[in-house]
Amino acid sequence: MTVFLILGIVGIAVVLASLVAGDLLDGAFDALEADWISTAALGGFTSAFGFGGAIADGAGAPLPASIAVGVVSGVVVAWFAWWLTRLVKDGPSDGTVAISDSVGQVARVITAIPVDGYGVVRVVVGGHPLQLNASAYQPIEAGAEVNVTGVLSPTAVSVTEVWQPPARPA
């Protein structure tokens, strides 16, 4: 039972080390070209093997049965650790919002846009509000909704007024 408990504690230490310096430790496995080997999976296997074997041994199971319980619990925990680390590493991340991401979005005019000048619009891109200078071919009053049609500079866009159907007579 003591050997199983020591393995369980060593496995937890490996898992903690993988949380702190996982990328550095996983670099040691790059030479093996085995994508499924990670320190989190190895630590999870070792700790689950040790603690699972200790529980089975403490319950009075013979040594081969304790080892079998440890292996099965180790494989399950190792697979789960591998799956979680792949999910985190391969998951999408939000990139920096660029002005080009606003093209095609609907914006609201904050400062009126004159024919030969710039006004200001606010557009929400990916949950991030952007306030940009805007130019249009016709004057647009503050409060109007516009479509962003192009990028003029790193801080300015071209816009057109959102088409509104004519009001039907009552």
Automatic annotation (TrEMBL):
Name of the molecule in the record: NfeD-like C-terminal domain-containing protein
Membrane recorded as keyword: yes
Transmembrane segments: 37-56, 63-84
Native source organism of the sequence: Nocardioides aromaticivorans
Domain of life: Bacteria
UniProt keywords, alphabetically: Membrane, Transmembrane, Transmembrane helix
Presence of keyword Transmembrane: yes
Cross-referenced InterPro entries: NA-bd_OB-fold (IPR012340)
